[in-house]
Amino acid sequence: MNALIHHAVRRDLDRLATALDQVREGDTARAAELERAFANLRRELTHHHEGEDTYVWPFLTGLGVDAGLLATMESEHAAMSAALAETGDALGALARGGSAADGDAARASLARTRGVVAAHLDHEEAALEPLLRDQEKTPEWKAVTKKLRHSSPGDAGSFFAWLTDGMSPADRVSLGTSVPPPVTVVLTRVFGRRYAREVAPVWR
């Protein structure tokens, strides 16, 4: 699941970079669409990181994982939060002004954010995911994942609609090993309508 979330984050940052390159001076309507779509990505990533900070890091601390490593992860979360906020502000400025300078500033901010996010995701995948693999079948870890997944049907539907948007067949198979496919289908189709109406069309 963590790998799928990381894939979705990278996917949307790539989409935004491509879309920003195509925004012409004065196209504030298109910039506003991108600002709203980016807000969805920021919300999902923030929720994911809050879950890690609240549940995963304490779990790893209990396993005796190096406290310095976990502190570094938290500092990377803070750096990402600041970078995402900066890009959100830059997209807002582009949506309000639409000048060539606003476009350049938004693209430069996004490039910085992509670098910060990529560095953290790579670090987490290399340093922490191997530590969790041995815990996947333990009751303690199952209790943590239950807390991580606890949300309203609407929130869960939005999450799965975001997660599965444009997902490859191989990734769908991978998702099916974590969540039964019928559950994903119901959550996405019934409760993920806001994402399907408001966010997915922006990328397409």
Task: Chart the SSEs and their pairings.
Layout: H1 2-22, H2 28-62, H3 67-96, H4 100-127, H5 129-133, H6 139-149, H7 153-164, H8 169-176, H9 181-191, H10 193-198, H11 200-203
Description:
The protein has about 200 residues and is mainly α. About 85% of the residues lie in helices and about 0% in strands. It contains 11 helices and no strands. The protein has helices spanning about 1-20, 30-60, 65-95, 100-125, 130-135, 140-150, 155-165, 170-175, 180-190, 195-200, 200-204. The mean pLDDT is about 90.
What does this entry show, briefly?
The chain is an all-alpha fold and 204 residues long. It has eleven helices and no strands. The model has no long low-confidence stretch (mean pLDDT 91).
Mean pLDDT: 91
**End-to-end span in angstroms?**
24 Å
Main structural class: mainly alpha
CA radius of gyration is 18 Å
Largest sheet: none
Q: What amount of the residues lies in strands?
A: under 5%
Q: Supply the number of helical segments.
A: 11
Helix content: over 70%
- Sum up the overall morphology in one term: globular
Low-confidence stretches: none
Number of strands: 0
SSE series = HHHHHHHHHHH
Which oligomerization state do the chains in this entry correspond to?
Answer: single chain
